[in-house]
Amino acid sequence: MICLILFNPTIDRIIEIPNFQPNGTYKINKEYLFPLGKAISVGLTIRELDKNIKLNLISFIGKNEIKIYQEFLNSKNITNYLIPVEGKTRSNITIIDNLKETTTHIRFPGFEVNESNLSEMKNKILNLIRNDDYIIISGSFPNGMACDFIYKELTPIIHKRNAKLVIDTSGEPLNYIVDSKPHFIKLNIVETNQILKKNLVDSEELNNPPTNDFLKRISNEIKYCDKIIEAFNHGLKFYILTLGKYGSLYISNDEIIYSYLNIEKSYYNVGCGDSFLGGLVYGLTNNHNIIDCLKIATSCGAANTQTIGAGILKKEHVFNFFNHVNIIKIN
Q: Which CATH number fits domain 2-330: 3.40.50.2000, 3.40.1190.20, 3.30.1330.40, 3.40.50.720?
């Protein structure tokens, strides 16, 4: 089973406006509404790849948005355990201009959780997870949740059940991610900088395709960082560094693998990392070798760019991209 844990969901309202710019008045061409959150986007990717795999979601939801989430998740065959919270679920407005190829985000704040909410979350996780489950905690923390909540409250439960913990978060909670002894880590450059407490990359380097020397340098800086060495010694299997449109690096004790895919046209870039993570976990749960897992993950991230909505992708796009993924082993 795969258990998806979401603390801070978001309702995504996406609108298309050609030639969008400030100080204008516009007629909306198209509008989309998705009740999402990062862990849900991960789950949607997995569900698109496998209609039968068992997916459970545990999430806080603003009490007035419970119905829209239940209807959406039920339609996707994702079993859901929703914890009602006082206040509104946060929301995003995303403005897409396909002519200028720009994306503008407007983000609204959401609810605050209390001790009762946190206790209910902890109990649901305790009662639901089983041996060898994948536990994917993905997304930011809401107000009211301590930055060390995963490390102090959830890690003991998860490891006692011999479940495989995967964490994809940001901000202050990152400072506890290694101590939580995850099965693997998937982070971007900014998040990796925070964990390592150093800047791996100059901003100009991110504007160009990475060279082999660049990939080797940052891989070694991650792999031989004391904190990551300690993580490998405590069960970390591998570290994934995502590089946006330039692909990803797989870093383990044994090998370093770079995977990337050139995409001619991208329509939607929000949620590509979530789709990548969903594809990776799908591959791992189906016992694919790591090369195929990375190709599936990269294909899912690419497929996410072809359809509006984070994690809303098509299996046919994943299959079409799979054989075009480039894999390079870094010596």
A: 3.40.1190.20
